[in-house]
Design brief:
The protein has one domain (about 20-240). The protein contains eight helices and no strands. With about 240 residues, it is an all-alpha fold. It has helices at about 1-45, 55-70, 75-95, 105-125, 130-155, 170-190, 195-215, 220-240.
Length: about 240
């Protein structure tokens, strides 16, 4: 009996790291899909876009489906998600009859609800033992998502939308950009086997980067959402 009990305990201990890794991956997925939902929603309905691009509707709807699937069926995370989805459903029902200049009435509550969901997921993620290159990839991807959110809210109309999921100050764009650039280099340094894939993503970021940082240029919320979304997806696929 003692031997069997010790074996059971040993198996349980060995399985704990795998369980923690799975939980961290799920929480990261919740955060990424949350940003994907809100960023693509903003890109689709942005009144300063050159026309309506159905790809962003497809993307935000896919992110919504992923969130419904990955968020636990009960608990605070599910409650936060349901709150966000309720605001989204109400907006979708009214969007066709709502002038674009009134979209902020709907978007600000959604942005707050997304921030609440992201904050809960982040709190739980911080309790997981995530380290090494996986942690660096996770962090880089979230910073890409945050920078895109800053750009999307700004191009929607300066002063129109609030920013709740990102710490905002006059240096926010530059600080995130510096962290992203450093993040790509750090992953290549720590994981040489990923060099080709990460360099390709870094080059794509370099292509769209001037638009994200130079706000004197013409606003291109669609182009930035497209490229940054692709980078985020491909970077997530590299994580084990």
């Amino acid at each position: 009996m003692k031997t069997a009990r010790l074996l059971f305990i040993l198996i349980g201990c060995l399985s704990m790291p795998a369980q923690a890794s799975n939980q961290a991956a799920e929480l990261q997925q919740i955060r990424l899909q949350g940003f994907a939902l809100i960023n693509n929603l903003l890109a689709y309905y942005n009144p300063n876009s050159d026309g309506v691009d159905p790809r962003f509707q497809d993307r935000y709807q896919a992110a919504r489906a992923q969130l419904i699937q990955v968020v636990p069926a009960q608990g605070e995370l599910r409650e936060a998600l349901e709150n966000l989805l309720q605001y989204l459903a109400e907006f979708e029902a009214e969007a066709g009859e709502t002038p674009a200049y009134l979209y902020a009435h709907w978007f600000n509550p959604m942005l707050k609800a997304h921030a609440a969901l992201d904050r809960l997921a982040d709190q739980r993620y911080q309790m997981q033992a995530v380290a090494g290159n996986v942690a660096k990839q996770h962090e880089l991807n979230l910073k890409l998502s945050k920078l895109l959110l800053l750009y999307q809210t700004r191009t929607f109309g300066i002063g129109t939308l609030g920013v709740f999921a990102v710490e905002m100050d006059e240096n926010a764009f530059k600080d995130l950009d510096a962290s992203i650039t450093k993040g790509f280099s750090k992953i290549i340094e720590d994981a040489p086997g990923l060099t080709d894939s990460v360099e390709r993503l870094a080059n794509q970021y370099a292509f769209v980067r001037p638009r994200l940082l130079d706000h004197s240029q013409k606003w291109v919320p669609g182009i930035t959402a497209y490229y940054m979304g692709n980078i985020s997806q491909d970077l997530a696929a590299l994580a084990p």
